[in-house]
Amino acid sequence: MATDIQISIVGSAGDGTIAAGEILRGALAGMGYKVISFDVYPPEIRGFGKCIARMRITTEQAYSLKHKSDVLVSLDDSHAIPHADEVRECGAVIYERGSIVQLPEGGHMSAHIGPGQLPYPVPIRELSEKSTGANRSRNIVVLGFLAGLLKLPAEAFQKAIAKKFKRKAAAAEAGEAAFRAGQDFAAQTFKLDDVLFGPPVSTVVAGATVEMISGNAAIVRGALDAGIDTFFGYPITPATSIMERLATEMPKRGGRLLQTEDEIAAISAVVGAGFAGARAATSTSGPGLSLMAEMLGMGVIGEVPSVVFVSQRGGPSTGMPTKTEQSDLHMAVYGGHGDAPRIVIAPTNVDGCYRCGGKAFEMAEAYQTPVIVLIDLYLSNRYETVVFPSRPPFEADTNRKPGKLAAGAQYKRFALTADHISPRAIPGEKGNMHVVTGLEHNELGRPNDSAEMHEAMSRKRHEKLKAALRHPDFTHFKRFGDEGPVDVGVISWGSTFGECLEAMIKARGEGIRCAAMKVVMLSPFPTHGVTAFMTDCKQVLVPELNYQGQFANLLQANVARPVTRLNRVSGEPMKVEDILDEIRRLAGRKAAQKAA
Amino acid sequence: MATAKNVRHHVVIGSGVAGSQAAETLRECEPDARVTILTLSSLLFYNRYDLPKVFRGHRDWREFLAYPAEYYRERRIGMRRCSRVAGVDAKRRAILLDHKEEIRFDTLLVASGGRGYVPEELSEFRPLMHPFSSYTEAMVAANEVPDRGHVIMLGGDMIGLDLARTLLDTRHRVTLVAGPQTFWPHEVGADERPGLVAALEKMGIEVVEGADAGGIASIEKGARGLSSRRVLFKDGTELYGDVVMPFFGLVPSVEFMLGSGVDIERGLLVNPALRTTNEGIYAAGDVCQIWSDAERRYRFYYGWKNVRAMGDLAARNIAGGADPWVPAQDETLHVTADGNIQSPFWEYE
Fold this sequence. Notes:
- The complex is a heterodimer.
- Chain A is of the alpha/beta class.
- Chain A is 35% helix and 20% strand.
- In chain A, helix 10 links the parallel strand 10 and strand 11.
- By secondary structure, chain B is α/β, with parallel strands linked by helices.
């Protein structure tokens, strides 16, 4: 039996909602299920805002969260009530049976459970207090109840609880007791719902390892596997955990990490380290990227390898720090003054984060330019089960080294070559002394603002990036779904592509000829491949999480074809249903056919 | 007014036959009113008379629902499941739910029905018995009884005897420990009883007469390898079975109405228009005792047809009617020409 179950846990900051989600997905991933998970949390530290831990558990590969959950767990009705209608028919709603305060009419979850949904009132607080002496373990009580209700093995949860509280013996003990209390209560509860788990299916090849990992953690893993040795950064949501993880890991590998005073210092140091031959990177979000624009230009003109991981959030300005958005694409591709081309790659899932996290260093070095890896909060905080290969798929050194110079010849750091990539010497190498400056320069690196030189160097900086479109072992773009001519083609990028893929699969299930393309390489743009795809499509749909249609703009700047834009700026991931509705509309499906 | 301006809020406590019928009629009579059902059940309205089907292999709760979820959505009937009423404040027109939520109403219909009665002397053995008054209880019992298993039925009201018919039909063994509640709610004279008991035996029920509830010394878990329950009688005899099921009739579920200001005897006392002693509160079904001018007493009326008619009448009167109660079904227990028992309380649509 194939498993495809989505569970949402909703509570208030301080309820342990996110921790419960972490334990649950850890347990399920440990059992061998595929898990996609995305947490939503408030900008406040504690006490007010809504937290949601949402995860989809499958045996077959899934690409996004579902529109409807199979199970909703409420740790705080005031936050969970608005999500009651997100539970499917015959789905389960688990909630606190009692209340310690007087409630107005409608203040309890039971008032909002639809006639098609199944209510499971649980004395969560009471069970926590009885089993642990405090109400702090309510989140673990509901995990025990879930495990009992869904007939999941306790051992996997116990392991995940022990791992979560490995440095807090008392909390681990309380967690164990609370879990048992919830599980025992479930044993006395009559099970009505049809949320059923089939056995997990293992598709892991020998030697590979499977891990439940977030987008940011995958970026870190990719960077480490690619040999990052220097990192400078300044914390900012939702990119902070990249620096935090690297701060733990890099010293173990002899690397260097410094928290700088701001983002300008961070990118400046990264460009400096790149110049010095390091595999160097920084991480930031939209506001930080704005600050880095000037020094990215320095990296471009100085042809310095440098990597910037950017996790987008709602903007502009401080915007919505804990909400997702894809609105920094223009900034990433075009941001800054002058003709400053750079490589921008955008993974579409957590596995892609790993690959892009490592490949960015290969590209930065191979094409001697800044590389921006563009993700967003949805992808940063999304957890997926990822299969890691036994050997990292990254080249440790892609630098084009200078050969031996002929007698009397002078090393030209910016030599004009056939493929526009110059041999790059690392400062300190004997005989290869050179100058790098922010001024326009000649092949030696010395300032030169003649018309001829500026034209030659501008051409060099742009043309050399074309080689990145052929960068080996990298998916620049990929088509899915029907081959040949289709009625609707969906093109998207970044985290939204998962939803596009799900929508496309559903549309095909409804008999619509449909295909989807993900574009990972955003700059330079893979015009040829995308044009070929669009030629096959009667209609082209471009869903993305920004108001302007930034990717659609980029697309139309490169491929002169009309597209239909689907833009959302809710701060939430795109809904599969919204994309599917649009596909149906474009395919000329009437509402009646849709309903059928 | 407790609710939105000019919109009356009718609350029905209970989602059984009476409550569900009342909600439907209220919606028809007052299309704009707010109608809310409060029920302890986790399921939408299902027909209790269908429960014996669990022994015929029908286990999915969906098969028991009288109406799909869409029915409630289309009729805008609010369905508050798993909601236990803690008390009713008739003066303030407010219901307090167990979880401390207060619900205001303009009119209230109490249709909370009855729960299975167990004599005091047997109450300590409740954990070892398998009641059969809800879907959950029916499923638990059905899961406990093996194929061709042995059911010991205590009391033997007409709900139990209806189940016994199914059990026999599905090749189970049924032993009835008969007592004063046998044939409840039919009032059976001493002269009629032997003939009725003989009819039960003819159906295939093994009847242990005389060992009434007071005659049971204890109920125990059976020994390993034997049946799972043992009933010990005071005379030293014993019975082994797979489950022990109590069928001693129903007691009205009225605890939450204590202190509400509404008159209660065993059930809620209502006039022939099914109104309680409070003008905004009505009652229908197994929970109420209706004044009978003919009999000069308050009395219960049982059976699916009666209960449904009560729900309908109460709703119409809430909506402004003033019709009196007229029983909707015969209450006579028959023995057919071929010697089988036939009860009007087994009839439902």
